[in-house]
From TrEMBL:
<dbReference type="Pfam" id="PF03576">
    <property type="entry name" value="Peptidase_S58"/>
</dbReference>
<dbReference type="InterPro" id="IPR005321">
    <property type="entry name" value="Peptidase_S58_DmpA"/>
</dbReference>
<keyword id="KW-0031">Aminopeptidase</keyword>
<dbReference type="InterPro" id="IPR016117">
    <property type="entry name" value="ArgJ-like_dom_sf"/>
</dbReference>
<keyword id="KW-0378">Hydrolase</keyword>
<protein>
    <submittedName>
        <fullName>D-aminopeptidase</fullName>
    </submittedName>
</protein>
<keyword id="KW-0645">Protease</keyword>
<comment type="similarity">
    <text>Belongs to the peptidase S58 family.</text>
</comment>
<dbReference type="GO" id="GO:0004177">
    <property type="term" value="F:aminopeptidase activity"/>
</dbReference>
């Protein structure tokens, strides 16, 4: 399936995309998937690993922006309080959070046997969306072994998108959706930086989608209340403080709004942003740590990158996902098929 850019949906913006147009354009970041298929089953796990080292010992700085908190994620409260993450980030369905949490805890303990005994416990970070319209979520198909498989699959380079991993059973704006990613290159002073975004898209009321060219695709499915969710994960190598990271994360909402989202009462919309610059040591060698931080006068470029990459990541999730039948027989069409049937005049 072609991406939004390959289908001609993305106008030329002020910021260029990275070489893979993916979150993995940020050096050190890797992504892996585990997709589950079976009778009534279409679900999985997607893993985002911020760097190849021990994340518990060398914690990336991070922040979270909860746009609408109708969700059951794990670990966000501590991220908001301490401004760091201690494990890879796993995405899955709502009832898969416990299995993914267990997998992250066990892997962290295996690497650091002192966890919970001689040092602090670990904060597993798992985010979710409800894929119950396509997947039999009550089957609780996701296991800790599936989470491990997604983590073991993590790699740099191009990222598989659409109905894969955690996105296997997700829908958006009445169309089939799932995992999408995009990136933007940023020139600050005389240095080059990257911001990449990966989304788990499962939100938006049918008929509300607005394409960059102004068209409003009609999926021709029954109207329903906005009860979906979207998880937006941003990575950057730009040195940002925790307050700045939250401000950048907040601009993911601008990218969602460009698409026609209004964050309904039943929607869980969460944006998480981390930086690979100046991670925090678990056992600091000195009581005072030095960290670089971007001057606020130059932060607009990161805001733009966040909004643009979020918008394109969601469009990629929609464009690369095939038409899929729900458990009740309803068909969630592919946006790519709609575009073929409704070319620009």
């Amino acid at each position: 399936m072609k991406t939004a850019r390959e289908l001609g949906l993305m106008p030329k913006g002020k910021l260029a995309a990275g070489p893979n147009n993916a979150i993995t354009d940020v050096t050190g970041v890797t992504v892996g998937h585990r997709s589950l298929r079976g009778e009534g089953i279409a679900t999985g796990v997607t893993a985002i690993i911020p760097h190849p080292g021990d994340i518990f010992r060398l914690k990336p700085r991070a922040a979270v922006e909860v746009i609408n908190g109708f969700g059951k994620s794990a670990g966000l409260m501590q991220v908001a309080e301490l401004g760091t993450i201690e494990t890879p980030i796993l995405l899955t369905n709502t009832f898969g959070v416990a299995a993914c949490t267990e997998a992250l805890i066990r892997r962290a303990i295996a690497a650091n046997p002192a966890i919970g005994r001689k040092t602090s416990t670990v904060n597993p970070l798992v985010c979710e969306c409800n894929d119950g319209s396509i997947n039999d979520i009550q089957a609780m198909a996701v296991t800790a072994a599936d989470a491990d498989a997604a983590l073991d699959d993590a790699r740099a380079g191009a990222v598989e998108q659409g109905a894969v991993g955690a996105g296997s059973g997700m829908t958006a704006f009445g169309f089939k959706a799932g995992i999408g990613t995009a990136s933007r290159l940023m020139r600050v002073g005389k240095r080059d930086f990257t911001l990449g975004t990966l989304v788990l898209a499962n939100f938006g009321a049918a008929g509300d989608l607005v394409l960059p060219d102004g068209r409003r695709p009609d999926p021709r499915v029954p109207a329903s209340p906005e009860r979906g969710s979207v998880i937006v994960v941003m990575a950057t190598d730009l040195p940002l403080g925790d307050r700045q990271l939250q401000r950048v994360a907040r601009r993911g909402g601008a990218g969602l709004a460009r698409l026609g989202a209004f964050w309904g009462h039943g929607s869980g919309d969460v944006c998480l942003c981390f930086t690979t610059a100046d991670p925090v040591e678990h056992d600091p060698a000195a009581p005072i740590a030095s960290q670089q931080r971007l001057s606020d006068d130059f932060i607009d470029i990161a805001f733009r990158a966040a909004a643009e990459s979020t918008q394109e990541a969601v469009l990629n999730a929609l464009c690369t996902a095939p038409a899929t039948a729900a458990r009740n027989g309803r068909i969630y069409p592919a946006l790519a098929d709609w575009l073929k049937e409704n070319p620009l005049s």
